[in-house]
Design a protein that fits this description.
single chain, alpha/beta, Rossmann fold, 6 helices, globular
């Protein structure tokens, strides 16, 4: 599998993917990283790991449609089997969603469908929920509405603040996303009527 990653920030989840792959390789290879802003931590990680980086800078284009066109061209140039959004802070256009249906994986720091969109940890604390967590799902044309692949739960301690919750959820993210990528690379994910089913591991396949 050819794995392409999209990121906008520090790249801790991208770093974790590379670490897990180095220790227990996926049935695939990381062919590139696309970032939407310059000087990201994710790009530094990619450069130090010999993963090609493409910058499609959002602010460089006068119209959003121009950015989307160049983003699609950049994605196509890598010929990916799987696209992994690891902290990519842009909504992908319909053309990309349709072309790579059920092949774009996104990580969101809440237990979807609860608290989609921006600042989900803050939303969770404002509503006083007792558990939160993270979700890996396939992207569709909605905002964090695609088929759910896997979730991990975090207990919210009394008096928890937003940054503490972000850190607690990130611990789970670093385990959940690599596992979801591994399942995809082993052809063990199937989407039927909007629901993701995990196939049993075949002979000689871990898990």
């Amino acid at each position: 599998m050819r794995i392409l990653t999209l990121a906008s920030g520090a790249g801790s989840n991208f770093q974790r993917l590379l670490e897990v792959h180095a220790d227990q390789p996926f049935q695939g290879q990381f062919v590139g990283l696309i970032v939407d802003r310059p000087n990201t931590g994710a790009a530094e990680i990619a450069n130090s790991s010999s993963v090609p980086v493409t910058l499609v800078e959002y602010r460089a284009y006068e119209q959003r449609s121009q950015f989307e066109d160049f983003l699609l061209q950049a994605i196509q140039s890598y010929e990916p089997d799987l696209i992994v959004g690891a902290g990519f802070m842009r909504i992908l256009p319909e053309a990309i969603i349709q072309r790579y249906e059920n092949r774009i994986m996104n990580l969101h720091p809440s237990l979807l469908p609860a608290f989609p969109g921006l600042h989900p940890q803050r939303q969770a604390l404002q509503r006083g929920v007792k558990v939160s967590g993270c979700t890996v799902h396939f992207m569709d044309s909605g905002v964090d509405t695609g088929p759910i692949i896997a979730q991990s739960v975090v207990q919210i301690p009394e008096g928890c603040d937003e940054q503490t919750l972000i850190n607690l959820i990130r611990i789970e993210e670093h385990e959940l996303l690599p596992e979801a990528v591994r399942l995809f690379c082993e052809n063990r994910l199937a989407v039927q009527n909007g629901v993701v089913h995990v196939k049993r591991a075949g002979p000689g396949t871990p898990g």
